[in-house]
Amino acid sequence: MLIDVRTRFAPTPSGYLHAGNLVNAQVTSWLARQHGGQLALRIDDDDRERHQPEYVEYIFSALDALQIDWQIGPPSLGEFLQCNVRFRHRYLHNQLSLLPEDLTYACECTRTLLVERPCPCRALHLPHTEGETVLRVFVPDDCVVDVNGQPVLVKLQLGDFVLWRRDGIPAFHWANVIDDRDLGTTHVVRGTDLQMATAAHIYLARLIGADRVANATYLHHALVRGADGRKLSKSRLATAAPPILDARMIQRIQSLARTVAEPLGIRPS
Ligand SMILES: [Zn+2]
Question: Which residues contact residue 22 at a Cβ distance below 8 angstroms, ignoring those fewer than 6 apart?
């Protein structure tokens, strides 16, 4: 059966892309090409205050250096900057009404309080107020989601996770599910560190009837680690200079990408 493959590279510009992000971009683009599918570039810029324009600019130059083309999404930095983030947040907020009302609740607990005692907020029916509460989704204790054949007990792994942040910004899980639904994503390629995020996305997608997202193919690749063996992290590296995209670096990215793509059945092209 021929499937119409649609996948995406969805970087968050909270720092310069690191080698792990570049490997993810490369592997995702190979998957799209292998199936004659479409690749979308979706820059997750919801937290715009933390994002420097040079981080976004680097995304475009890195994709260019790796000769990755995308068919959906902003073709250039200039077009990307025209996107109205306020309008987008209003849209994402409106989409919250798709969730059954009794499954979401505002929570005013601080992180410190949550360490000391369970959150009592679901029973309190607090109003969801920007600056004062987050909005959480209730997860039943026995909710199990299958991620790559492994059952994940969502409550144990993620608790009643956040959909809307205290600072008025959509949380990653919510924005991701709505974006993937709107894009018609069929394949998601991400690192193994996001396996629990995948469980959250499948749970939310089922709640809002986004069947294509709930049933998408989720491919988790091995993580690229730094010389110290630690997972690469944009926030830790944010102040560091970006990887210089010379021929040697590109070769290194492609070689790492081949290593992580192979076990997933993705062919380099
Ligand atoms: Zn609470």
Answer: 62, 66, 243, 253
Q: How far apart are CA 100 and CA 201, in angstroms?
A: 16
For ligand 1, the distance from its centroid to the CA atom of residue 125, given in whole angstroms, is 10
CA of 26 to the centre of ligand 1 (A): 40
- Residue pair 40/70 in contact (Cβ under 8 Å)? The answer is yes
d(CA 230, CA 237) in angstroms, rounded, equals 12
Between CA 105 and CA 107 the distance in angstroms is 6
The contacts found for 153-159 with CB under 8 angstroms, 24 or more apart, are 154/199, 154/200, 154/203, 157/196, 157/199, 158/196, 158/199, 158/200
Provide DSSP, 180-214: HHHHT--EEEEEGGGHHHHHHHHHHHHHTT-HHHH
pTM of the model: 0.93
pLDDT at position 226 is 73
Tell me which of 225 and 135 has the higher pLDDT.
135
Ligand 1 geometric centre to CA of 14 (Å): 27
Q: Determine contact, residues 143/188, Cβ cutoff 8 Å.
A: no
| Residue range 63-100, pLDDT digits in tens | 999 999 999 999 999 999 888 889 999 999 999 999 99
Identify how many contiguous H helices and E strands the chain contains and give both numbers: 12, 9
6-98+172-264 placed in CATH 3.40.50.620: yes
